[in-house]
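Lab notebook: predicted structure, single chain.

Context: the supervisor wants predicted structures on file for every construct in the current expression panel, including those that have not yet been purified. This is the next one on the list. No modifications to the sequence; it matches the entry in the shared construct table.
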Amino acid sequence: MKAIVQYAYGSTESLRLRDVERPAPGGDEVLVAVRAAGVDPSVWHLMTGRPYIARLSPELGLRRPAHVVRGWDAAGRIEAVGERVTGFKPGDEVFGQCDGSFAEYARAKPEQLAPMPDGLSFAQAAALPVSGVTALQALDTALPEPGCRVLVIGASGGVGTFAVQLAAHYGARVTGVCGPGAADLVRSLGAVDVIDYTREDITDRPVRHDLIVDAAGNRSLTRLRRVLAPRGTVVLVGGETGGPVLGGLDRWVRGLVLSVFVGQRLRPLFARTRQPDLLRLKALAESGAITPVIDRAYPLDEAVAAVRHLESGHPRGKLVVTV
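Prediction complete. Output recorded below exactly as produced.
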């Protein structure tokens, strides 16, 4: 089968399209014939092996990638099932997290898959899992009530576009922070106000927010607390501008420690793709409460260009690789 592989940590130059052996599912796994795969910042972390502390995880590998095929998000059809799998059968259309989704076939755990949402294409469904689950779990940290104020930083990105839609669905008054040219998109997703970070800082306005979802990861805790209500919550998602060793982990730790001494909560988010959350996303997508925003779709043989697009710019919504 064809797949995007990487045998050593590095830049996009280390990614290659190769013919590799088709994986075989274990007894508690399924094999998915991938039709589309999402591209998100976790792909960059897997590619570079940064922050270095993450290499202690078996998902990455200390000296070289533990899994040579890139990609997590996927949507496709079940090709085969292990002997202990009972929830899925060959031919079922699914979406969720796979082991190496930038490929024609990928293994997956059944508990990280769910049936495809009705009415969504494979490309749209592949945009949902990692970013959608992250946004969902971020909002679950402090479920907004109708009328409360929610600030989404990175509102035009993969996680941010889902967070804006979810907060608006819950009845919150949403302000989105995004770059120039993305204001109309963010408003169309449900934001009642938009801050262009190239023209205005989030601290320029006197408004205090009950919940801040920081999906950009580059603002100090001091600045975030200035625009947070006295009993409000900040959810720290990612740390893309952190150092090469710890990434955003140091900011997460400082947030947890600071929360002990102040009324505000500063919570890091360790998102995990789980079937119950995928089923919630499926229901929300089918009801029209959320719609995946796709910036651009690339064929598998141009997947490296998709990763370059991710690391060099600010995609509006998600990038998708089609297979």
